[in-house]
Structure to design on (284 residues):
């Protein structure tokens, strides 16, 4: 199979739970608006602005790229994240992203009472809390009284692992299953998914973004290798650094669902079995 044919095959296997397709689907405001109406149980909710792949810079620490940031008509800011791999402390991820979002929307001199409310919605393929619910709201509670103490920050966790027959669970089926659509309940989500899975325009757009991801992964891997090689100061060190850098990037892209195991192994230049062993013990 040619490289182009393999890219096209990969593109047609993607679903909204995959970063690449979610990013493209979120370019149309109707998609995030529809899923927020479902998740927040508000059919009248309006998204005034949505920015996929929104970059948040942290000059003193780790920056991040949000899957999509939305501004609602009532002034609330919503960050929607999708995650396939259960490979980290996701509650701390939500906490960190929420802090960066809040910092990003706050100007010097703003009074704290004027800081907009922020909602982080974490959509995962797995059940973060292992409690058999498709949707979880995490609230701040005063331990001594049991009362809620709302400070303008909300955490909502959605997962595709649990099917409780709710609207959220039905929406997650469209996110994860190849040929599942629901034009009555979720017309915007269904139409956007069809566009990128069943039209030449959509499939070509997905091929472009997959090739972009692959190119970025290779470039980052080579950069990591060069940096490590310079530290070693020897030709052998440079070669080993490049290989390790490519492997780390390949594992990272696989965990994010952007590459299959075989593709990641090919990108790292090792066998599938070697990749599996490396990925099992890798810290990315």
């Amino acid at each position: 199979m040619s490289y182009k044919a393999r890219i096209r095959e990969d593109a047609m296997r993607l679903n909204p739970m995959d970063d690449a397709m979610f990013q493209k689907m979120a370019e149309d405001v109707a998609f995030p608006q529809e899923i927020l109406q479902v998740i927040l149980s508000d059919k009248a909710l309006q998204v005034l602005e949505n920015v996929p792949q929104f970059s948040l810079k942290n000059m003193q620490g780790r920056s991040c790229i949000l899957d999509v940031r939305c501004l609602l008509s009532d002034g609330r800011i919503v960050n929607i994240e999708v995650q396939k791999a259960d490979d980290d402390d996701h509650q701390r991820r939500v906490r960190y992203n929420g802090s960066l979002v809040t910092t990003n929307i706050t100007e010097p001199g703003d009074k704290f009472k004027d800081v907009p409310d922020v909602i982080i919605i974490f959509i995962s393929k797995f059940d973060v809390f292992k409690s058999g619910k498709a949707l979880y709201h995490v609230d701040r509670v005063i331990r001594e009284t049991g009362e809620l103490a709302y400070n303008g920050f909300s955490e909502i966790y959605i997962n595709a692992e649990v099917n409780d027959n709710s609207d959220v669970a039905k929406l997650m089926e469209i996110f994860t299953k190849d040929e599942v659509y629901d034009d009555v309940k979720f017309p915007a989500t269904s139409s956007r998914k069809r566009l990128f899975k069943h039209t030449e325009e959509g499939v070509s757009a997905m091929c472009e973004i997959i090739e972009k991801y692959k190119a970025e992964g290779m470039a980052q891997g080579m950069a990591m290798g060069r940096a490590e090689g310079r530290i070693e100061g020897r030709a052998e060190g440079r070669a080993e650094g490049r290989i390790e850098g490519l492997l780390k990037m390949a594992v990272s892209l696989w965990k994010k669902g952007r590459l299959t195991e075989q593709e990641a192994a090919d990108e790292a230049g090792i066998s599938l079995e070697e990749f599996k062993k490396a990925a099992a013990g890798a810290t990315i």
Notes: The chain has two domains: 13-198, 201-281. The chain has a mean pLDDT of 87.
